[in-house]
Amino acid sequence: MDCLKNPLFCALLVVGALAACTKGDGPVVEVAVGGGQAARSEVITSGLLAPGDTRDLILVAVDTLRADRLPFYGAERATGGSADQKWSMAWLAANGTLWENTWAPAGMTLPSFTTLWTGMPPLEHGSIGNFIKSSEPTFAMELAELGWAGHAVVANRVLGEDCGLDRGFTSHLVRTKQAEKSAPRELLVATKNDVEAKQRIFVWAHYMAPHQPYEPVAPHLGTFSKSSGAKGDKPTLEGLHRNPESITDAVLANVQALYDEEILTANDYVVEVLTGLEAQYRNAGRGDLLDNAVVVFVSDHGEELLDRNGYSMHAKSIYSGTTHVPLMILGKEWMAGKRVEQGIALEEVMPMVLRGVEPESEYFFSAYRELFYMVRDARWSLVHNPSANLNGPPEPPKSVTYHYPVVALYDRSVDPKELVDVSLANPEITRRMLDALRTWHDALEFAGEEPEDAMTQEELELLESLGYASAGDHEGESTLTPWRGSQWNP
Q1: Is-contact 88 271, C-beta < 8 A?
Q2: 3-state DSSP: the chain helix, strand, coil percent, rounded to 5?
Q3: What is the pLDDT of residues 155-213, one digit of tens each?
Q4: Coil vs helix vs strand at 120
Q5: Per-residue b or e along 85-116, where b marks 16 or more CB atoms closer than 10 Å to that residue's CB
Q6: Residue 20 has pLDDT above 60, yes or no
Q7: Residues 6+ apart with CB under 8 A from 131
Q8: pLDDT tens, 107-153?
């Protein structure tokens, strides 16, 4: 393994080796940080790979879960279930540490999850689209080399065999959204013997209910939506994108209500799998789940839900609806009910949980391939389209424009959905944000230019059904390096 290219890998091996021969609890470190964002003091654990820590890692991920549709991120509806029900999303928020500003690197599944599992942005790990796998080492591979057993049941075929993220797992099952109802039970079958044997494990439970189409089933259908209202099937959603003038308040309300009902379905799966895991630990005489594991709850990206351009889905967008995701962590050192305002990028989550690395990023970056960019700090968001491409990403429906301005600045303190461009009123901030984007881009170690494998017809059809473009749709694209601040002269 190349330590110069991925020093995290070697550092984790060293820490893991120390853990294997050292007894006693790892220390809790108090860290005070100043700088670009407000100075803060957070209690950060030394991580699951600290000497003497023997706990497991339980990662629960809900695909396409937009943070601001959850009540603990400001939504009015109880989409996270009841805080009185143990292991519901609402209970996780009340009994864990919640990050208010977690940013995904892209509005697509494989690029974002590969970032989570490698600690690298898509332009470095190389998975810039679905079915474009990365060859970079993952944290799952590292944990497996340290003797952990990994079990995953994922409910998205984009995360199937040869996606690059199945490496390191002892068992890795893939289910469709339509078949994910069985996923919690199947994961519990895989973990049972290892829990009984006190084998150290890492678990990935992944659910896809909020992903389009929005077609909730009983008992949640009708909780928020009206049977007479707009549907959430693919033809309806694509039709709204083609004809945004047809989006009335009633249409908007019902589409979002159907999406919220899908979140309730995902919540059922979360409760089922975590309740089942806790029962396994208890039956093995090991105590409660949080006596034995750290639980991480996260999403890969959100959904635009008709915020702009009549677009409801996610692949075309790197705006906040698709890149602001929930993050909660529970464990004996993660304070119950604590809310962290400090931003965190998705690539910083695993280093923090495994090694206790304090997130210190001042800027947060998202990109659609190397075409459209977003940079954020604690208050401002800047979007940049350096090629002045007026059509936007070629994601389905491909004939519909999704416009990105060449440069636009948004003040999230008053405009959290990033709808009103205030760049002309804030030229110094606009140039500062452009400079931050260019500095980040210049520092990237881009993934090697390996030819993309030809997709099978099944893969092409799957991408189309999920609302994604294929590699062929990107032929002939021209990309430009992001501007420096001095290049912006409105």
Answers
A1: yes
A2: 35, 15, 50
A3: 998 998 889 999 999 999 999 888 999 999 999 999 999 999 999 999 999 999 999 99
A4: coil
A5: eebbbbbbbbbbbbbbbbbbbbbbbbbbbbbb
A6: no
A7: 110, 158, 163, 455, 459, 463, 470, 471
A8: 999 999 999 999 999 999 999 988 889 999 999 999 999 999 999 99
- Peptide bond just before 416 cis, omega within 30 deg: no
Mean pLDDT (whole number) for 391-395:
92
Element of type H or E holding 430:
helix 427-443
Q: For residue 367, what are the β-bridge partners?
A: 373
Cα separation, 256 vs 401, in Å, equals 22
* Separation CA 146–CA 474 (nearest Å): 40
| 15 pLDDT above the threshold of 50 | no
Mean pLDDT of 344-354: 98
pLDDT bin (cut points 50, 70, 90) of residue 10 is: very low
**Max CA pair span of the chain:** 67
Report the run of H or E that residue 373 belongs to, with start and end.
strand 372-376
Is residue 478 scored above 70 in pLDDT? no
Distances (CA, A) of 383 to 318, 319, 376: 9, 8, 9
Residue 5: band (very low, low, confident or very high) from pLDDT cuts 50, 70, 90: very low
Exposed, middle or buried: residue 45 (CB in 10 Å: 0-12, 13-18, 19+)? buried
The 10 Å Cβ neighbour count of residue 228 is: 7
Question: Which DSSP state fits 334?
Answer: B
pTM above 0.85, yes or no: yes
pLDDT at 17: 40
Domains of the chain by start residue, with CATH: 9-361 (3.40.720.10), 366-487 (3.30.1120.10)
CB 432 within 8 A of CB 112: no
Q: Which helix (H) or strand (E) holds 61?
A: strand 56-62
Q: Which helix (H) or strand (E) holds 457?
A: helix 457-466
* CA-angle at 440, arms to 122 and 121, nearest 5°: 15
321: helix, coil or strand? helix
Instruction: Using the predicted structure, report yes or no on whether residue 39 has a pLDDT greater than 50.
Output: no
Q: What is the pairing mode between strands 344-345 and 339-340?
A: unpaired
Find, among 111, 141, 106, the residue nearest to 128 by Cα: 111
Q: How far is CA 174 from CA 28, 277, 455, in A?
A: 37, 19, 19
Neighbouring residues of 287: CB distance < 8 A, sequence distance ≥ 6:
281
